[in-house]
Amino acid sequence: MSDSTDAQNLNQDAVEATETENNLPEQEQNVPEEHKRRIRSFVLRTGRMTAGQQRGMDEFWPKWGLTLDQGMINPVEVFEREAPLVLEIGFGMGDSLLEQAKTMSDHNFIGIEVHTPGVGRLMAEAGDAGLTNLRAYEDDAIEILKQCIPDGSLDLLQLFFPDPWHKKRHHKRRIVQAEFAQLVRQKLKVGGRFHMATDWENYAEHMVEVMKQADGYENTATDGDYVPRPDSRPVTKFEKRGERLGHGVWDIIYRRTH
């Protein structure tokens, strides 16, 4: 390897490290120091809002948006009814979550996403569809779980296609770690499920290894470590494109036992 290539790689590593650690400092001026010190599984990236996405934030966020500073929620008060509660971390542009909220109207849904355009789109689509069973946070999922979601309140937690952090030196940034598994367990009801999906086989293997070591869970798979995609998880456009290219997808569902 040439000196110039080495220099380029070192420079790229520095850029990645700076981007990841700083996470756009101007957006984090009000983030507590203890939150900044924790290794994050995401990088905040600015994105231009379309008119429709901005309308979603302006028109529907005040009604359907939830914020970290509201503290611990009471789901029955938030949704004005008692129903099975599903929480999704990292809903992206919201396609799957919207479809679930429409087709599973007897469930309540909470989505968490740090990408503002995705939150805006979710708000606009949900508002236009007249959905009353969907709420969203635009913040760090770990802090929301810790500070806002009551223990033993979730029937299902969904984590679909999280950032795989495929470089080995970045594996520590993967959201699925031992501590996270126990935080999820704390928020699930006994019998509640933790559903993960990824199109990175290495990450799927990592997820299974973490969950095998986690206390208080059992794998719902009856043959091996993975389950067929349940009908409740919509197939995304990204996933369909990957399937056409021969990419695999691994679904993993663990149940809280105690």
CATH evolutionary superfamily of the largest domain: Vaccinia Virus protein VP39
CATH topology of the largest domain: Rossmann fold
Average residue pLDDT? 87
Low-pLDDT runs of 5+ residues are 1-31
Could you describe the largest sheet, including whether it forms a barrel? 8 strands, mixed
What does this structure look like?
This protein is of the alpha/beta class and 258 residues long. It folds into two domains: 1-30; 33-256, Rossmann fold (3-Layer(aba) Sandwich). It has helices at residues 3-22, 33-37, 51-64, 75-79, 95-103, 116-129, 141-148, 178-187, 201-213, 237-244; strands at 65-66, 85-89, 108-112, 134-137, 154-160, 188-198, 217-219, 250-256. It has an eight-stranded mixed sheet, with helices on both faces. Strand 2 (85-89), helix 5 (95-103) and strand 3 (108-112) form a beta-alpha-beta unit. The longest helix has 20 residues, at 3-22. The N and C termini lie far apart (53 Å). The relative contact order is 0.12.
